[in-house]
Structure formats: structure tokens, C-alpha cells
Amino acid sequence: MSNDRDDKLNKDTEAAEFTLEEILAEFGSGPKPSGPDLPWPEAKRRPPPPENVVPFPTPAPEAPGGEDPDGPEEDAEEEEAVPPPPRPKTGQPPASDKVLEFPEDDTPPLQAGIEHLKRKADAYAEQMFEQEGVEVSDETLRFERLIPGVDEEEPPAGRFFRERKPRREAAPPPDLPPAELAGRYGRGLGLLRLRAVLVLLLCLPMLWLTLAPLLPFPLPAALAASVPLQGLLSAILLAAAMLLGADGLILGLARLFTLRPGADTLTAFSCLFALADALTMGRLTPERQGLPYCVAAGLSLFFTLWGTYSKRQGLRMACRTAAAASEPYLVTLDEKAWNGRSAYAKWSGSPIGFGSQIQEDDGAQRIFRVAAPLLLLSCLLFSLIASVGRGAPERLVWCLSATTASAACLSGMLLFGRPFRVLSRRLSSSGAALGGWPGAARQGSAILLTDADLFPPGSVSLNGIKIFGDYPVEKVVAVTATLIRDAGSGLDKIFHDLLRSQGAVYRRTTGGIERHEGGGLTAVIRNEQIAVGSAAFMSLLEVSLPQGLNVRNAVFCAIDGELAGIFALNYVLHPVISPSLTSLIGGKVSPVLATRDFNLIPAMLRQKFKLPVEKMDFPTVERRVELSDPDAPHDPVITAVLCREGLAPFAEAVVGARRLRWAVTAATLLAVLGSVIGVLLAFYLTAQGAWDSLTAANLTFFLTAWLVPTYLISGWVNRY
Q: What is the pLDDT confidence band of residue 420, given thresholds at 50, 70 and 90?
């Protein structure tokens, strides 16, 4: 009987056995059964497994990469070697009774998600209103009223592109003294102007012959009846003009062989092919009834000589201005000087590198260094296609003459020469000289202004002295002058003269001076605490001031917390300061007040002098000291050389450099565009054999039209 019962129990147990995957999937320890994921973690929660079920051990984690280090075969053997779970020794219910159903949550998933969002919103609201009801103390309000607000620098933004390696530049020209360069540029300047005028006079008869068919210009009967004779006369006039401007033509050809072609290179080829076409048109293209393009080539040669003259005259004025002062000020563009931006700085030094910069190629030449070879190659290819390619090789010289004349824009050498001469004349009268194109090419968006820029020597004067307590005048003057001198303030000269007049000497501080954001200085002199600053700084230190005191701009001195003296000052703003700041702000150059005089704060400049301080930056006292440090490193490229004090020459040089760069770049791009359009039109008309459309008069009108933007833009450079 017992045996039958045991057999029945064993059969029930064997029937109740489950596979490993089913049990692990049921109790959450194995692979998750297929089906949609729960939308919210609170939507469904599984209860803990029942006590009468023995959990199986979890499988070992897989090796990195999703593969087992022992291989799939060893894993299969290990799975087969896993012993089955121990059988219970007591009686168990049937298999169907051993599966426990999980309790289902009655809360819908959408409602559970809404409850979850409500709890997060309540937690955020509690953190957001933690500080509600906390009042600002009177001490904090007093500090905010007495301490001027400052501007903090923003962290530099990350760069998501790789910086290009700088190109290898050619060796710079020798750094000659400005006085020597001024003599070189002035030598032969009058003769160059005379030769340019003679070339223009030779172009006038050619222009007369060209416009005679269009306008009622009288011509001799023999000349009017013979077009080949007119062409021969034009060739003779062009040859004479080429002899007068031979130096410009030779220089243009030499640039091509040195791989530095320019606008004068295009002019040289235009003159050569125009002369060749004028001499051969009667034999190669006898069917032509128009004149050669000698007038266009002659005008291009004239403007090349005139542009060279204008550039040399501007360089001469700049070098003479730079050599006028033995110890000039230098203007450089220091990278990332303020708030991650490049800023113009003025400092005293020797103009090392100015002579080398002034001799380098200008912006127009650098653009034509790339454009000129492409234009010349286009002229050659288009001429071959329009002549040889269409079975008319005898038209090759005519096609080359037309395309090169269209490529040689009249304003090639005027693009930099004319605006630089106009700007150099204005800056020379202000005591400033630009450092050539390298100084104007780099642009900044900020300018550092020091005490001497806003109030140069003579703009601040002493208006009175009052001593308090039993302190001697000599002591109060000495300790005040010592702190002013050690701080590097712009008031140093005033207190130095006062120190000498009182027969006092500078004192020695213990541990140096401390600068405070409230507008003052503190130091220890002979075991006494000295404080020098503005009235607001005295209020911060809780130093008692006289009742009814009505001194707005003054230097206060306190010794051991007691007022010792007041030095009244009179600030006079020069009339050119406000227009200079307006030109800087209008030119998108932000002034940065790197002042050390604690009285020069935005509130004082706005209330007393009505300056636009809301468009200026006012750094912290530590940054102002760094930015105005006379020993700070500067960029080696000189933007300008200044020979006078004050903000006027500084601002004019900075704004002028920015306008010169914009004008030269814009005018050069327009000139290159005109050359490209001219070459394409000439190619089309020569390919069609349109003698009557591609006349010398039409080509001259086309080139003259593209000369107008250069004169308009160059005349705008000094209008500020």
C-alpha cells in the first residue's frame, strides 16, 4: 500500500516539473517574456515570489562584446551539467495548483503616469519657493549702492572645427627706419606724377579717334577716310605711352615671373596685345572696320601709374608721421584680451617692424595674386577657342587683345592706393600713421581705454586741500601720493607735483597696496592703516565724513579709520573725447574702461560728462590692472603709430584701419567681378565674330563704368 502511494507521489512530482526558462521568466530572474513595455514604473509591480518555491541561481554575466570567452560549445555542456532542482520530500499539489497568478494593478497606466507627473511638479515647486520671504539685508543694499557694477567676462565658447595650419609666408622685407623709407618713397615722386599726366595726354587723341564715329568730333579728311591710318596713329600713341610707363610694365611682367602677379601684370599684357593687334589688324583681319583697343590699354596704363603715385604718396606721409616722435605710442591688436575678443591696446615702445610692414603687399595685390593668373589663363583659353577652335587662327591676336583689355580693370592699382592716401592725409594731421596693410587687415571689436586716454595730462587739476585732525600736511600728502604712485593711477603727476611743493617724500608701504572694488586703496605705512579713495569708499569703511560735504570728485585719505585729508579735483573733458567715442561705437568697436583712477567709474562719466557708458565695458579692478599693465605682452604686428596723447588719434587710427580694410576688400572684389564679366562677354563676342558690338568705344565705356565704384568707396573711407 505504501509502495503504491510512493509511486503515485513520484508521478505527480514528475508531472509538476517545469523548465528553467519558464521559471526564470515567471519570477523575473531570466529573459523577459515578449510583449509591450510598461509605460510607467508605477503602473505594474510584481509581488515577491511565494515562499514554497525555491529560486534558481542566476546565470553568470556574459563577457564584453556579447560573447562568452569559453565559446558556445562549453556553454552548452555546462547547461546540460546543471543539476535539476531538489524535489520536495513532502506531498505537493498537482502541477496546475503550483502556478500562482500575480495580482493585477487596478490603476490604469495613463492615470499612473499623471500621478507621477504631479509628484514631480510638487517636488519642483517646493525647491523653487524655498527662498521665498527671505529679505535682503540693509548692509547688502548699502554695498550695492556704493560699489560700482562691473562686467564679467564670459567663458570662451567651444570650437567644433579644427583650426587650419597657417600658411608658410615669404620672408618679410627688411625693417628699415621710417625716416629712411619716407625719403625712398619721396624720391622721384614728382617725376612719376608728370609721366602719368603725359600718358593721360597721349590717351586723349586716342579717345578722340574712338568717339569720333559716335559724336560729332571733327577729324582731318585724310584721317577720317582711312581706318587703317587711324589704327596706325593709335599704335604710335600707345607705344609712346608705354615708353613713358615702362617701369610699371616691366614691374608687372617681373611679378609674373616671381609668381606674385598683380593688376599691373594684366595691364602689361593688355598693352602688349593691343599694340600687336594695332600693327597687324590690316594684314590679319582686313574685314574689320573698327579701331584697335589702344585707348583702353592706354587708360589702364594711366590709372596704373596714378595708383602707384597715390600709394607711394600715402606711404610717404605715413612714414614721415611715424618718424616725427622719438618715443611714440604703438597700437596693436591683442588676441582675446577681453572677454574672448581681440582688443586694440596702446602702449609706449619702439616701432620695431613698422618699416617691414609698410613695404608688404596690400590687400588688393594679395587678391589679384590669385585672380590675375586665373584671368590670364582664361584669356588664353578663350582666345584659342574663339579663333583656332572655330577655324579662324588669324583672329587669335584680336581675341587676345579683346580679352586682356577686358581683364585689365582701370582701378587695379587704385584699389588700395587712393583710399590709403586719403586716410593717411587725415591721420597725419591727427598724429597717427597706419602700419600698412598688415596693420589694417586684422580687425578687433574692442578697445582698451586707460586714464590718459580719457583725461590726458592737463585735463585734471587740483582744486583745493583740506586737512583734518592733528595730522601734518606733509604726512597726509606723502601717504596719499605714495598710494597713488604705487597704484599706477593717472593722478600720479598731480600728487607728485604736490609732494614736491610741500617738501615731502614718498613713504614705504609694508606688504604692498590692496585695491578694492568700492573705489579705493589701502596699505600699511609705519604700522598705520592708510586708506585712500572716493567718498563712497570712505562710507564703505565707515569713516565719518564732515556734515554737508559737497565734493563730488575728490581723493579722500583716512589714517587708522579717521579722516585725515580731502584733495578736491577738477576733471575737464576734452571736446574731442565724446566724438571719438561716438566714432568708435558707430564703427562697432566697444570701449573697455581699463582705468586705475578710482574716480573714473561709469556713474561719474555718465552724470558729469554724459558719455554713453551703457555701451562700454567696465571690468573688475583686478582685470583693469591687468589690462592696463605697461609691461603686459602685446602682439608684434603694429596697427598704427601715434605721436600725440589722448583718445582722438587712437580712435581715428582704429576706425580708419577698419574702414580701410572694408573699402579695399569690397572694391577689389567688385573689380575682379567686373574683369570676370568682361572676359566672358569678350569671349562670347569674339567667338561670334561681332566686330560691330565689340568696338573700342563700347569696351572703354564698360571699363569706365566699373571704375565708378572704386572712387565712391575710396572717398567714403575718411568720412567719420
A: very high
